[in-house]
Amino acid sequence: MISQFFVLSQRGDNIVFRDYRGDVQKGSAEIFFRKVKFWKEDGEEEAPPVFNVDGVNYFHVKVVGLLFVATTRTNVSPSLVLELLQRIARVVKDYLGVLNEDSIRKNFVLVYELLDEVVDFGYVQTTSTELLKSFIFNEPIVVDVARLQALGPAGLFMQGTKRMPGTAVTKSVVANEPAGRKREEIFVDIIEKISVTFSSSGYILTSEIDGTIQMKSYLSGNPEIRLALNDDLSIGRGGRSIYDYSGSSGSGAVILDDCNFHESVHLDSFDVDRTLSLVPPDGEFPVMNYRITQEFKPPFRINALIEQAGPLKAEVIVKIRAEYASSITANTILVQMPLPPYTTRVSFELEPGAVGQVTDFKESNKRLEWGLKKAMFLLNGLMSCILNSIVGGSEHTLRAKLTFSQESHGNITKEAGPVSMNFTIPMYNASRLQVKYLQIAKKSKNFNPYRWVRYVTQTNSYVARI
């Protein structure tokens, strides 16, 4: 049971506010944002997803830069409320097509109509996009996707050798095409968030993959779908390892520790041929969630070293190597490393000809940052980009000279690090789980929907000790 729901921008602007029960003060949105912005308890940099202020419980999730928040005075399950917030964001995105501040402001009537159907007097009624169609009567105002920020390679969907921009999926599930016809399409994402911890000598200490097969359907009539996965997919450890440096993408056994499926998935033939059959509901939903804790080939290798270079000086050397194929390019890489608290100045040295690399020393929290991003330039009046700095097989080195305000009297390696990385790699997945085929039941001879599949690997925690 929740008392209030509201959506805030990164600036703290209140975009949507709905009070369901009237038992929490009206200024809760301002109290929440002030608390999150200036969170300093226990030395944390960010506020936790759940906290209490003056007897009011605040729950929040961040989705594409927007804060989805719920408040309550009662003792409710935090995981339940956080899942509700995620589902509300998903439902709003299904109906609006694009989830951002502009689309919500333009469709505020539709958004409030959705909120009143999803939650009634603080109690959840439904979060199903398909069921809500019977109760929602406002049409979405489509936001011009041409003005949205380019998604880059991670926004590309594949169909054999064809590519379609990721903006094709930014359509409302209830709005028709401008010509009045509905384009029959289905989108499948295999999204993996990986966690890896390296020792100071480069060995893998822990490794884990949290993955999901996400689907978004624009098919009319809800036809049955058969989705086939790897033949050698197995569930449960069984004493085998999938750690194989020589293996190429798609080869070798795929072993999941555990997995769960959406309620619409039928598993009648899953044990026989690893095929899932389902009638997809409208909108975006997770077909399957899975977890892998066995060893796998990490996409990047990190080597970091910090050495004393004098009484008040030290030098840091960070090397990263992309272990994936040269045909794959990572979108954006950010390397961070905490430095000793008495560091006053840092000078950086990059490789000759380094393109699209930026460095910074965050003096407030004594943190070194090294970013390898798209390098943008103008060519004949057109914007182009260079991505050669983060292609597979490449290796890059950063040298940083540190100046201290006092002499270090202990082991300097204990006062610096670890090195952490954040990255996104499109069309790559560490588990090698693949969609072999996506079969859609034909309603007629001319029914041939577009099928788009995308693989994306992101970081959950990627850390190397010094």
Topology:
Layout: E1 4-8, E2 14-19, H1 28-37, E3 50-53, E4 56-63, E5 66-72, H2 78-96, H3 101-106, H4 108-118, E6 119-120, E7 123-124, H5 129-132, E8 156-159, E9 162-165, E10 185-198, E11 204-217, E12 225-228, E13 233-235, E14 254-256, E15 258-261, E16 265-266, H6 270-273, E17 275-278, E18 283-292, E19 300-310, E20 313-322, E21 333-338, E22 343-350, E23 357-362, E24 367-372, E25 375-379, E26 382-386, E27 395-404, E28 419-426, E29 437-440, E30 450-464
Parallel strand pairs: 10-30, 13-14
Antiparallel strand pairs: 1-2, 1-5, 3-4, 4-5, 6-7, 8-9, 10-11, 11-18, 12-17, 12-29, 15-18, 16-17, 19-20, 20-27, 21-24, 21-28, 22-27, 23-24, 25-26, 28-30
C-alpha termini separation? 47 Å
- What is the makeup of the main sheet? 9 strands, mixed
Query: Helical element count?
Result: 6
Number of DSSP E strands:
30
Record the strand order, biggest sheet.
15-18-11-10-30-28-21-24-23
Average the pLDDT over all residues and give the rounded result. 83
Strand portion:
35-45%
Q: How would you classify the quaternary structure?
A: single chain
Structure overview:
12% of the residues lie in helices and 42% in strands. By secondary structure, it is mainly β. The chain folds into 3 domains: 4-133, Beta-Lactamase; 185-239 and 252-297 and 428-464, Immunoglobulin-like (Sandwich), CATH 2.60.40.1170; 300-426, Immunoglobulin-like (Sandwich). The chain has a 9-stranded mixed beta sheet, covered by helices on one side. A 5-stranded antiparallel beta sheet has the order 2-1-5-4-3, with helices on both faces. It has a 4-stranded antiparallel beta sheet with strand order 16-17-12-29. The radius of gyration is 24 Å and the shape is globular.
